[in-house]
């Protein structure tokens, strides 16, 4: 009969220790360090590297590896010249037809955008298939850095048919919500979307625009949205910092 032990449902079972019980020393330190982090408040600076190494009886090299993993996971933040701090909770965006603006404001966060590109280009074969166009048809391309409370957290690239929405650039303020513009000014009704999520590393250009380390895991979303007639509205590629962002969805049984 198995012995019943208590554990937190939001943590790895048995703290991530394999059944044979052998773990790298840095991982054991990481677990202890995470327990320490949970007792500290958001924005609290960690004790010095020397103090932590002595506290956990490990070398500084081992400690640095544990700290680095917690930074990648978004539990800690390194600030050049200031130290390492306890990170705030991750932002949560619903996997639904909710705009970035609305999703952030629901969490009490003020969204904004830096416009990188707002241009008219021609559709290649794949984009034409996604938007039910002919290759070479004109499309609008909008690329923007996504910001939450003055912190850069993502990069979004969106394509829309210039034939279907010829007035788009005349009525859109690219620093504001594209969805609000489409629904309120162009009469578009969103019905559903197809979305694919994967993990990637940012390109050097993307990392520079977002202001993050190129080694940081990113969450990449590909989306094609459709209107109530089943016609595609947009194709979007959204890249989010994995250390600051997560997604939530409510699933329903198929009937």
UniProtKB/TrEMBL annotation:
Pfam families: GntR (PF00392), UTRA (PF07702). Keywords: DNA-binding, Transcription, Transcription regulation. CDD domains: WHTH_GntR (cd07377). SMART domains: HTH_GNTR, UTRA. One of its GO terms (molecular function) is DNA-binding transcription factor activity. One of its GO terms (biological process) is negative regulation of DNA-templated transcription. Residues 23-89 form the HTH gntR-type domain. InterPro entries: Bact_HTH_transcr_reg, Chorismate_lyase_/UTRA_dom_sf, Tscrpt_reg_HTH_GntR, UTRA, WH-like_DNA-bd_sf, WH_DNA-bd_sf. PANTHER family: MANNOSYL-D-GLYCERATE TRANSPORT/METABOLISM SYSTEM REPRESSOR MNGR-RELATED, MANNOSYL-D-GLYCERATE TRANSPORT_METABOLISM SYSTEM REPRESSOR MNGR-RELATED. This is GntR family transcriptional regulator. The lineage of its organism: Bacteria, Bacillati, Actinomycetota, Actinomycetes, Pseudonocardiales.
